[in-house]
Each structure stands twice: as structure tokens, then as C-alpha cells.
Amino acid sequence: MPKSKRDRPVTLSKTKKKGRAHKEVIVNGIREAVEKYSSVYVFSFENMRNIKFKEFRQQFRQNGKFFLGSNKVMQVALGRSASDEMSPGIFKASKMLHGDAGLLVTDMPKEEVESLFNAYEDSDFSRTGSTAVETVELKEGPLEQFTHEMEPFLRKQGMPVRLNKGTVELLSDFVVCEEGKPLSPESSRILRLLGIKLATFKLNLVCRWSPSDFELYREGLDLSDVETS
């Protein structure tokens, strides 16, 4: 009787940051989920927010499981090639795990999964170091959204301000952030004070695998790249 691919030993010695036992727990967890549920989705994410992601995951708590972490460890769990994949064709999904990515293993109908992912989008304040998606500039004059107590703090953030009869006044036009440039700590603080949310937390489906088929969602991906390897 041929030996099951699921029983093959896995080498995790190339990954160093966390212990071997921890990685084996992740690998085993993914493999158990693949055996339990009918479909595997690879998704990418932008501007991850842990609390918001936890809320999104709750929609799958009865019929699915999410995995985030090292792409290499997740690839090992699924199999990196046709020769070591845990189920026929699943290595194609494994090859889509790169960058900011994760796995969803679920029994939820395909149409429902697609609807939940496509509909989800949540704005949030940008963090230091993230790239500004637009230019924000304040014009010279009174800043009535700020109380007089804020004037010293605003000056510490580099803003040319003063108090004029108890009102915070901007002495010259001031660029808070420029599109395409990383946000400084001061810029991110000012944007938060202004209530301007430039970051959008999004989850994008990349591909879906099931025992009967494999589907790519993202335009520009070439299925021929993963057909054989």
C-alpha cells in the first residue's frame, strides 16, 4: 500500500526565529484543518489591524480556521512542490504564499467567502513609517479644531503655530504629509489629531484550492507558473 504524503517527515531546520516545536505545531494545525475542511484560500492583507482582523475572523468561527505567520512554514505544511504536497494540487496554493499573506481553511460556500472578503474594508489612522496615500496640507490661519492647551504640543510636532487671543493660529501653510512618502512620528500624530484616516485595512483573496479544482482571483497572476514545479 503506498505511503500517504501526509505521513512524510518535514524538515524545519532552515527556519531559525522560533523553535522547531512551535513550527511543527503550526504545520500540524494547518494539515489537520486541510483534512477537516473542504477548501483552502490564500489571501493577502494591507495595513493589518489585529483587533479588526479578530472581528472579521469571528464570521468563520463555526466552519473555518485562519493561519498567519511565516510563509515558509505555511508552505511546508501544504507542500512546496508536487512531490511533497499533502494533497493533490495543493502546492499551487502554497506557491501563492508570499509577502503579507495568510491561509483560510473552511467549509463555507465559495460564494459566501468571496462576498465577505470583497465587502470588507475598514479605515484607520496611518502608522509611523507607512506610506502616505495622499498629501495633506494645512493653510495659514486659525486652527479652531484645536484648543489653546494644544498649542505647545503642536509646536513640538514641528507646526509653526502661536496663540492669538486664545485661538491656535498657523503662521504659514504646513504640509502634514506628502503622497508617496513615509510618515514621520510627528505626521502620524497630527493626522490622528485631525481625525484623518489614510490607512485602509483590506483583505484580498489570491486563490482557492479544493480537491476538485484550483482558482486564481488576482489579475496578473499566471496559472502556468504554478502548474508544474
TrEMBL record:
Subcellular location: Cytoplasm; Nucleus, Nucleolus
Family under the similarity heading: Belongs to the universal ribosomal protein uL10 family.
A GO molecular-function annotation: RNA binding
Protein name: Ribosome assembly factor mrt4
Annotated InterPro entries: Mrt4, Ribosomal_uL10, Ribosomal_uL10-like_insert, Ribosomal_uL10-like_insert_sf, Ribosomal_uL10-like_sf, Ribosome_Assembly_uL10
Known partners and oligomeric status: Associates with the pre-60S ribosomal particle.
Keywords on record: Cytoplasm, Nucleus, Ribosome biogenesis
Transmembrane segments: none
Domain Large ribosomal subunit protein uL10-like insertion: 127-196
One annotated Gene Ontology cellular component of this protein: preribosome, large subunit precursor
Function: Component of the ribosome assembly machinery. Nuclear paralog of the ribosomal protein P0, it binds pre-60S subunits at an early stage of assembly in the nucleolus, and is replaced by P0 in cytoplasmic pre-60S subunits and mature 80S ribosomes. Ribosomal protein P0 is the functional equivalent of E.coli protein L10.
Keyword rRNA-binding: no
Record SUPFAM superfamilies: Ribosomal protein L10-like (SSF160369)
A biological-process GO annotation: rRNA processing
Keyword Nucleus belongs to the record: yes
Gene that encodes it: LOC108819415
Organism: Raphanus sativus (Radish)
